[in-house]
Amino acid sequence: MTPKVIFFDINETLLDMQAIKTGLASVLNGDETLVDLWFANLLHHSLVDVASGQFHDFIDIGAAALTMVAHSKDISVDEATAKDTIKQHITRLPAHDDVFPTLKALQSAGVTLVALSNSSKAGLDAQLEFANIKPYFSHVLSVESVRTYKPHAAVYHWACQQANVKNEDAMMVAAHGWDVSGAKATGMQTAFVERSGKMMYPLGLAPDHNIASLTALIEMISS
Taking the CB of the first residue and of the last residue of the chain, which one, N or C, has fewer CB atoms within 10 A? Predict the structure, then answer.
């Protein structure tokens, strides 16, 4: 079924995270490998918020996670420094090469495009503006409006309501298996983007599509 609305995750799915790896490594003794550990901890502790009925800003969770990763390696980073470092770099991420042609083609084909992120609304707006892709989206949705994080089902149901589309007529596109699995559980169509180093969660709900590049969405819409 051809989706009427396509929802896009932002970090790693549309935006290249290499710049933040370099930036955060500056407070981690130059070790870029620790940045992947930081991002995993950020996502993990956002789910701790969901499970414990709390809600903290994504950047605050990121700062807390960064201090924890640093501490595990006997590196001293205070939360203020961690937060400033993240804010400095996370809103200055370029889009992957396949993003512009894909969004342009989908928009031209009449598909409604929506940005859906765990980032704050202000942070999300800044990210999309820096990457020069904000005009492609009819809706820019942050989970802070519902005060819980993906992959909680409430986020996907709310997002589809905001876009005035039934879940089954919408598609979630992400480079994170947990995001794809969460969306699939609510009845949405899904596409997993195989970004470098990323694979679908083996125990998750299987996506409708595994794609090596976003440009595959163009063919999907055209067929």
Answer: C
Angstrom distance (rounded) from CA 185 to CA 84: 36
Give the pLDDT of the chain (223 residues) as one tens digit per residue. 899 999 999 999 999 998 888 889 999 999 988 998 999 999 999 999 999 999 999 999 999 999 999 999 999 999 999 999 999 999 999 999 999 999 999 999 999 999 999 999 999 999 999 999 999 999 999 999 999 999 999 999 999 999 999 999 999 999 999 999 999 999 999 999 999 989 999 999 999 999 999 999 999 887 6
If you ran DSSP here, which 8-state letter would residue 152 be given?
A: S
* Residue 104 and residue 136 in contact, taking contact as beta carbons nearer than 8 Å: yes
Which residue reads 């996670």 in tokens?
Answer: 65
Angle between helices 58-72 and 33-52 (to 10 degrees): 130
Structure token pair of residue 77: 């980073």
The gap from C-alpha 176 to its chain's centroid, in whole angstroms, comes to 8
Can you tell me which residue has the tokens 């290499």?
18
User: How far is the C-alpha of 163 from the C-alpha of 169, rounded, in Å?
Assistant: 11
Is 0.90 topped by the overall pTM?
yes
